């Protein structure tokens, strides 16, 4: 509720004074939605029709472009790869980060700050610059062309952010919680997973959502680690496809639309959590 | 339990279940039928034709499957180099020629084929030159074509506009003016978004008639450099054609330019002979042929730039060497050369083929007067290559932002850091 | 006595459990992030022949980095990244602040607009880059619209023109992430006590005045976070350039960035010839690491000092 909603002026002139502001907001809304509208609408047209009929609805809602894009880009396969990698990375990140954040935020160890600092510095570290050595490492471990390799690398990159979020949320829980559980004879593992974690559900959802988005969308690491068509994730497959079929606009738009669909659905379901998560996490993606 | 928790558990369960199912599926995938040889290529344009050729091979050689995987040209070299470095390369890799082959040879990624592919002895030196290691002179690939380049033209448009094949440069310009007046794009070409190699070919088409057939040798011995007025004049002539290039030239890339020619919107296309098959495949109804770029004098012998396009090499770390060598043996055979010429319309690396395609016949006649394609054959041996400078600055030169002299000077400065003339 | 022993044994248990709990995360993080980074920094001081580290080179990789032919690429990329940072600060974060303020002044619609503005940020850079490449292509929708409105004639060549290409990429990046400053500033504004604004209004301050004189100083933490994030992201820029212009930073290297140059050196795409220069790549990596670390630390200090405590 904005504190500035109070005013003494009459309602009508207040509304009129707001008009330029609304216009600006409306213009940017159009700037965001129009390209997406064009993307969706063009999927159903042939390249020729796209030229003739830019903004209008398609003459026929033919699914040819979608079918072609799906089969020629082998998108089904790529979707499964992306799902495995994203799911694996999210689960691994949440589990190990929660485990690490718990003692760092709730025990008095003497070395909390140092260890926490070590993790947190990872948020700003430019991992891409270590690509050469990372590549060599992956090769030596036999993790090139492997979904497991991607999962491990992604988890490693997301752990700092996750530890930060979990530590922040866990820190403010009352200390009586664990003490009471210990009195009852619960082991530390049980305390973490059955008592602490359920109390920081917002943290879990923030970590899950932002890790999922970052990993699903990433293009850089599949680019340098994946060479076999069988293991490509969606962003990599799409970039190759676009490079190859650039001039067939309907086909390319269809492939973009297909790859965008899961994210769009997730966004519609989770928009509120995402908005609040950005505010809470300070926008660290 | 909150709603979110319920969703999340369901989602995690679904993901876990999917992962397990997939792991199971991958584990029980049929072991690859006998031997599967992976082959990497950058010619995405020739995908269909290549698969037909290898389907024929597989029919005759049960027990070997050829899995062709394509990577678009702009990324091919670094994808291959990275994959080989990681031990995840293919069994057979399409290799660029001359200088661009050497890093792979030097790094020990390829096996020499002199002994394992005896058919190579039946190929001419012009073809084999691009597949040799510079230091040991051994052959590291099976060449597939010796393309040349020229001016592709749409025969129907020429006939409709009453234009004959130009005999001099003046006639050429006049023809362009006529086409422009009729609302037809005279020349389709473009090099945006990493496809500036097409413009480099344009210079290769125009060049020999300006700097002459002996220029390559002069550059090799150090008698001439890129800053020689003859080379600058060649660059300038290419830039002079700007009025006849498509609208929005700076934003047009190779693929779009080919579409303009194939779709009949442009009358001419400066290209290499590898366009033959892909033009036919994309528009079987297109009536086109090729002519050499004219010189100033009507009587001059018209030279064309030629080069060995590349070869197919055997990766040292391949796990399927026996099967891969069989495939390479096939690719060096007369049978493959014939199919190659028929399906793709390129001048094959072997000369013992019957030429059925009139365009191909025309191209092979043109290549009787050829000079090496200067920047590719002579100056891609080390980085920075002449091509990299030319490709990055040529659009600006055509647009008038850089003078041809400056481009030539930049090219010379770049190669001067490593080029040693042969004495 | 018993309490002391129980406390000590609890402490021991905790120390042991802490190590066990932290180990998995630390192991993964150390192996795949810290180790490669450390090795990369170390390796930048050695000569590399192909892919083998051969001998100690001192600073020779670095000196090679700054002279011809690498120097031209390096300074160009450095300049482009800097321009990218300032472009994003002004267009994305500046305009984002304006949007956040406008939404803050209004009761209704904030959630809707925020959701719409932030949506492009959840899309992969491949999708964003490919989409805009098609829209901005000659013959594409933007050309059609501009020509129709009489603002432009002929073919749209902004992406192929070495003078305008970089600006276009920055604009696409701003479109992509506009929602970020909107959300961060909104969160920051909501934390400011309403009484401050009420008092200012009673003193007769207009909305613009309130934004610049009152809200902005109190938004220093948010501004600091955003500036630091933008700094890190713009200097790490790779994806949009790769998808829209190719890894060479076409046209004429006008969209080349430090990370695309790094990629070319590290993975053999410089001149598209397949030749790597690992020594140069690692030196560039170390240089970029220094720029990012020092830059980030300076920024954090700068904004920390200016945070108004209430």
Automatic annotation (TrEMBL), chain C:
The chain crosses the membrane at residues 21-48, 83-104, 116-135, 165-189, 210-232, 278-300. It is a multi-pass membrane protein. InterPro entries: MetI-like, MetI-like_sf, UgpAE/MalFG_permease. Residues 78-299 form the ABC transmembrane type-1 domain. Its main location: membrane. Gene3D superfamilies: MetI-like. The keyword Transmembrane applies. Keywords: Cell membrane, Membrane, Transmembrane, Transmembrane helix, Transport. It holds the Pfam family BPD_transp_1. It is found in: Cell membrane. The keyword Cell membrane applies. Belongs to the binding-protein-dependent transport system permease family. PANTHER family: BLL4140 PROTEIN, DIACETYLCHITOBIOSE UPTAKE SYSTEM PERMEASE PROTEIN DASB. This is Sugar ABC transporter permease. It comes from Mesorhizobium huakuii.
